[in-house]
Amino acid sequence: MPLQNDFFLALMGLCFGSFLAALASRLPAGVPVTGRSHCPNCQAQLGFTELIPVLSFVLLRGRCKHCGARISPAYPTLELATAVIVPAFLHRYGMGAEGALNLIIAFHFVVLAGSDWLYGILPDRILASLSCFTLLLKLLSGHKAFWSGLAGGLLGFSFLYAVILLRPDAIGAGDVKMAGVVGLYMGASRVFPALGLSFVLAAAYALPLLALGKKKPHDVLPLGVFLSAGSLIVSLAQLPQLSAILLDLGG
Ligand SMILES: [Zn+2]
């Protein structure tokens, strides 16, 4: 794909990202998805110049123009992430049905990450919708991918279920459900690379904050953000040797 097409796809991704960030901020709060955007603090209706992806955040220095309240860096982060996701996923999976489904699944991960970041919630209806699209992808990918997905889902769910039994305060029930969906998407061969990377990313975020005293050991970590990031990265990564070895082992 020529470079100018990637640039165009990245711009499209920025706009999609802005919409996904709005979903992440509205769905858990019970705010209707349609309608104009408002500042969550002062309720002022946002104008066109306050709605430009990333740029508005930078120009307003991360604060509301009307009341000065801090705007979460989640918004520009989700927008930038989606700007990378759209061209990267289309390169990886193509423009056909597989590419479209993988992109829709990636968008679900963006909304889940945003929702967990902003509210510490992984909404059931987004997890359910993600499960449906993932199941559809597995059904279209053949019986091997389907059974590998079911096994991966069981492994991911059981693994985090064991964690929550051992350390009930460490993670939430939403994280356990999400790990099941991550496993379904990743399949048996890639569920642990995805979960492993998620935990490494979570530790890379939390340990410096703990060391600096900005977080306490019992503070809740938005694990959904890292589960999303880990899943998206492993989905994009080509792991031919590892997956071939594990698929051979798994028959
Ligand atoms: Zn405001």
Automatic annotation (TrEMBL):
Record PANTHER family: PREPILIN LEADER PEPTIDASE_N-METHYLTRANSFERASE-RELATED, TYPE 4 PREPILIN-LIKE PROTEINS LEADER PEPTIDE-PROCESSING ENZYME
Transmembrane segments: 7-24, 44-62, 100-119, 145-166, 191-213, 220-239
Keyword terms: Cell membrane, Membrane, Transmembrane, Transmembrane helix
Chain ranges of the Prepilin type IV endopeptidase peptidase domain: 104-207
One example GO MF annotation: aspartic-type endopeptidase activity
Membrane topology: Multi-pass membrane protein
InterPro entries (UniProt xref): Prepilin_IV_endopep_pep, Prepilin_pept_A24_N, Prepilin_peptidase/N-MTase
Every Prepilin peptidase A24 N-terminal domain range: 11-90
Recorded superkingdom: Bacteria
Principal localisation: membrane
Entry similarity comment: Belongs to the peptidase A24 family.
Subcellular location, record wording: Cell membrane
Cellular component GO terms held in the UniProt record: plasma membrane
One of the protein's GO biological processes: signal peptide processing
Keyword Membrane: yes
Protein name (Swiss-Prot/TrEMBL): Prepilin peptidase
